[in-house]
Amino acid sequence: xxxxxxxxxxxxxxxxxxxxxxxxxxxxxxxxxxxxxxxxxxxxxxxxxxxxxxxxxxxxxxxxxxxxxxxxxxxxxxxxxxxxxxxxxxxxxxxxxxxxxxxxxxxxxxxxxxxxxxxxxxxxxxxxxxxxxxxxxxxxxxxxxxxxxxxxxxxxxxxxxxxxxxxxxxxxxxxxxxxxxxxxxxxxxxxxxxxxxxxxxxxxxxxxxxxxxxxxxxxxxxxxxxxxxxxxxxxxxxxxxxxxxxxxxxxxxxxxxxxxxxxxxxxxxxxxxxxxxxxxxxxxxxxxxxxxxxxxxxxxxxxxxxxxxxxxxxxxxxxxxxxxxxxxxxxxxxxxxxxxxxxxxxxxx
Amino acid sequence: xxxxxxxxxxxxxxxxxxxxxxxxxxxxxxxxxxxxxxxxxxxxxxxxxxxxxxxxxxxxxxxxxxxxxxxxxxxxxxxxxxxxxxxxxxxxxxxxxxxxxxxxxxxxxxxxxxxxxxxxxxxxxxxxxxxxxxxxxxxxxxxxxxxxxxxxxxxxxxxxxxxxxxxxxxxxxxxxxxxxxxxxxxxxxxxxxxxxxxxxxxxxxxxxxxxxxxxxxxxxxxxxxxxxxxxxxxxxxxxxxxxxxxxxxxxxxxxxxxxxxxxxxxxxxxxxxxxxxxxxxxxxxxxxxxxxxxxxxxxxxxxxxxxxxxxxxxxxxxxxxxxxxxxxxxxxxxxxxxxxxxxxxxxxxxxxxxxxxxxxxxxxxxxxxxxxxxxxxxxxxxxxxxxxxxxxxxxxxxxxxxxxxxxxxxxxxxxxxxxxxxxxxxxxxxxxxxxxxxxxxxxxxxxxxxxxxxxxxxxxxxxxxxxxxxxxxxxxxxxxxxxxxxxxxxxxxxxxxxxxxxxxxxxxxxxxxxxxxxxxxxxxxxxxxxxxxxxxxxxxxxxxxxxxxxxxxxxxxxxxxxxxxxxxxxxxxxxxxxxxxxxxxxxxxxxxxxxxxxxxxxxxxxxxxxxxxxxxxxxxxxxxxxxxxxxxxxxxxxxxxxxxxxxxxxxxxxxxxxxxxxxxxxxxxxxxxxxxxxxxxxxxxxxxxxxxx
Amino acid sequence: xxxxxxxxxxxxxxxxxxxxxxxxxxxxxxxxxxxxxxxxxxxxxxxxxxxxxxxxxxxxxxxxxxxxxxxxxxxxxxxxxxxxxxxxxxxxxxxxxxxxxxxxxxxxxxxxxxxxxxxxxxxxxxxxxxxxxxxxxxxxxxxxxxxxxxxxxxxxxxxxxxxxxxxxxxxxxxxxxxxxxxxxxxxxxxxxxxxxxxxxxxxxxxxxxxxxxxxxxxxxxxxxxxxxxxxxxxxxxxxxxxxxxxxxxxxxxxxxxxxxxxxxxxxxxxxxxxxxxxxxxxxxxxxxxxxxxxxxxxxxxxxxxxxxxxxxxxxxxxxxxxxxxxxxxxxxxxxxxxxxxxxxxxxxxxxxxxxxxxxxxxxxxxxxxxxxxxxxxxxxxxxxxxxxxxx
Lengths: 349, 693, 391
Hints:
The structure holds 3 protein chains of 3 kinds.
Chain A: H1 2-27, H2 30-41, H3 47-56, H4 63-71, E1 78-80, E2 86-89, H5 122-157, H6 162-175, H7 179-190, H8 213-243, H9 246-253, H10 258-280, H11 282-295, H12 301-310, H13 314-342, H14 344-348
Antiparallel strand pairs in A: 1-2
Helix pairs in contact in A: 1-13, 2-3, 5-6, 5-8, 5-10, 5-13, 6-8, 7-8, 7-11, 8-10, 8-11, 9-10, 10-13, 11-12, 12-13
Chain B: E1 11-21, E2 26-37, E3 42-46, H1 53-61, E4 68-77, E5 80-81, H2 87-93, E6 98-101, H3 115-126, H4 131-144, H5 150-155, H6 163-175, E7 181-185, H7 193-210, E8 213-218, H8 221-227, E9 230-235, E10 238-244, H9 245-250, H10 255-263, E11 315-316, E12 324-325, E13 353-369, E14 373-390, E15 394-398, H11 405-413, E16 420-425, E17 428-429, H12 440-445, E18 446-449, H13 463-473, H14 480-493, H15 510-521, E19 528-532, H16 540-557, E20 560-565, H17 568-574, E21 577-582, E22 585-591, H18 592-595, H19 602-610, E23 618-620, H20 655-658, E24 663-667, E25 670-673, H21 678-682, E26 688-690
Chain C: H1 6-16, H2 18-33, H3 39-43, H4 48-65, H5 67-70, E1 89-90, E2 97-98, H6 109-145, H7 147-161, H8 165-172, H9 175-180, H10 182-190, H11 192-206, H12 210-232, H13 253-281, H14 285-292, H15 297-305, H16 310-333, H17 345-353, H18 361-389
Antiparallel strand pairs in C: 1-2
């Protein structure tokens, strides 16, 4: 098990490095930097002034070096005045004595930089936003997982039955409805003046202070619906396949009752595939989160990501990307490990 | 819950008819089927694939699936009609009174459940016993099926056991509630011959010990002879003949039974002097059955206007005990008339050496654990392989799974390169030339016929196109027209109608596909053909025809045939020389007569004893090998066969466990890899004796 | 003239879609008549599910074809009095109705949805096709050869898959990126795959008949190369090869980047599917037979393995067009790539959502349109899967 974990984790770190570099590269392209310089030093500055601003703020060195600085494996940039004393640098905060500043200050040292829009530490912003999104995700999982597994199992245990037909139609429909469609429809039905129902709120802004059923139900439902479709279809396929397996026939012909065939013999084998799918669905849920947070103005992680990207807030966007990439990679790792544990065939061989 | 006493027949099937319903039509699978199984009796159900024998078994279990339905007749189990029982009643009978054992042991065990749980479940459901009692029962039954270390077995998962062990567990599971009737559906097809022999032995013994009646379904007449008291021969959904083993085997009363026996290689058959007689034509598809006798169109005794007039009932045979046949002309046919010998042929002369292997070795490096990485291991797939093959000769390569015969074929074909040693093809070294670097001539002169007919042709390309492609690659013909013409000739060669060129593979039967495979192999005028179990997946009646075809083409083209097989009957029938392999080693090499007569290598001896022979006159010595074939990943030290060898004690000093024996020459051209002394070898008795009539 | 009631609106819509109804009826009548001769396509008409799905998909395809006939207004023209007006409202000049109301700028929602179908129906299948070309061209060798190549390509695929799609879009589909010419460079690579694919396909089979092979390769090279240069290059951008007079296809930079990103996001999944299928099929005897007669690897991959993988691939193709439609909508929803004026469904939903609690129809209509198309594709895929498993 240990070599497997080591191998997986080293692949994961390599993937993370590659991905963060790509993000770093794409956010630090010359046009982005020019935009940054203009927004920091005034929008009317000349090209030469842009260049010198970039130089003074450490953006002139080669991309790969700057990536290293950001990561914290290359010493942070410094600028010295004419007589050689260091006056500014990546690791030197305003008013700090350059001599006491650390040499390295990247994300490895826990220094995520400062958001140019919110004027606050990126790590702090992300911490707050991620908590909000965590709450949302928690409720999404709580509703989505049991519902989708139940639908999938009920539909798959008797393939082709009327129950299967109706549940499958339901899951296909929800899988065909992306969050921005279902969200819009749900708001129009349950929160607009047209139907007059107004059961729930069309905005989850108030949920940031206190969650109520009224302000949180629609966003959770919107994300969960799409996921339910995906997971239920997967579970159904897996369940239907298991139900035709020879060992299910063996169990049936041993005289095991249908309920016990499903619960004792089929379930564990049928849940291996959906488990991996649920885990791999996280990148997808992240999408949903971004859409739903935008749609319902819930200022969580997804909303932050969108605003960082829209405002050319490079440090914040980089921070968001690191988190997003790690969430995806860690769920992949969990999915791999879980697959091994659920499947005795692989575990012991 | 006690089982009621009952002393009538265990199973009585009367005029049973079963149909499957598809969107388009009703397909009758079994028609007017009757049979009776008395207590303690073992009934064999024999027939080719698609004849409906498994459907009968499933009907007894009332598990025909969504589309299958019993459309007529009754199935009485201990006097109660199963066809009218409710689900509830059926569940009480299933597993406790009737148990079933299937073809694929691995597939019939739940991969995510421990063996113990799966076994204990049976008495817990049916008899409501406690967990402890169920565990004790499981332990007892696992011991009964002769598995070593039962406690460990109960704690393991199915995939941790070998195929043979899994099948024993399936048998144990069936016996957990001491059922009155045991249905075995081809229980040994997936197993190696020596393992099969041990399982069959076990089934027989346990049947006696538990007093269980059996319904034994098989396509192998030899196996039925070993296990059953009575049998029922099925053809295309009908029982055609039923009676005691002795009557049906020796005094058969139906043309199909007769044709079946004539098409299987029994001792005494010979490819030149007494060739097999293939049954002409093809098995009818269920919706294309002829009027009257289903076997009519393929029958030698067919009489138009009479045999195809209407449905034919079963007729009892006078003077025999419960012996029935579905033939109108039973009284008119002279059943003892000697077979009008089909054309006999001269033995083809053997030519020069065309292929020589010298000390060939092929080792693989595999990581011990695919998922978790870890240390690599060397698998010795082929060890010191040396032999010669002559022009026009058939050299059989015999062995069970893991013996290295497929690796050898791959190295010869150039799909893999040898680790060391030499392969000389017409005196050219080819052992380290991969196929991409071989000349077209070399490639086209060494070709292969594959095992699985359903896999050998590309399903999305027409038959003609596939043969033409081979011609293109082998540089045959100068234009598309020439190649098309040549393709039609090849179809003629394998005796397929020219119209087949336009067909897709799915429209062909297994035997026909195999013929196309043969045509494709001979497209470039192959001089050496490796036939990897070319007929083992075919039905008995088709096997003879395909074998015949191979022999005929070989005789005309003077091809060297390397015939890979595990079936010693067919090997004896068609090969000139035999090479026996075990775990990558050649253990015996010699002419067919030498290998099939003592002195044997101990493994050859066991193999001979294990092969079921469908002849009541043959007396076999029973040699049951202990355990399973060791894994090639983890071979035993010393002689590869020492873990299962019954002669091991005759070799002094534990030599077998220390050293790989040398290859010794016993007689001209007869070599054996064994430590046994000459005296011990000389003391061996023949395994197969043919009793005088 | 009066404002229309619900039944009036319904009749009006049905009437406007007349060309679509006629086409659908003709298509279905012909297909059902000859379904036994049409192979897998014909089998669709045995399954009600597949038929419903197919009808939904074809409805939008025909709508896209006849969009100019169906649309009642110009999708961009604004009538200020019609802002956020309810469905069925009469125009101020009294000659026509806004069947499904007006949006926040006073444009006709109905016409915008109809015109918007064009964008989806053009881009989604084409982008999916390209993604398949890329996925197939890389997945085949990865599965067939295995080893280092496989490790490397699989790593790359997983890399892209680990990238949250939205983040990728936000990074790729920006004016700054278009300015750097990156989409065109990516297009340079991605669009090369179909040409290479076709050439290898022909060469692997016909290298035994050199004259024929050379002719076909030349034709593919010339036509494909011209289309390639014309598609990728654009005068006045970083990649300008052909002069304007010869440049046949003009793709605006922002559409190109949308197209490229969608292909980029889809191909790793296709790669994984193909790779899995190849791993299964390559153990078959007919592949061994091809190997033992000395066939070259690309022949085996393209002619022995690929045709036998078509079942699952066709099913996935349908599903993936649906997925691509969703992705295009996502892009529109975030206002990425396509111009805000564009009538595509995603952008329209985005524009409409701001006033959703007051006037939901500008957002609801395109939402339902998008949903019905994706649903149709999913149903079609399901039906296809069921039908191809039968027999």
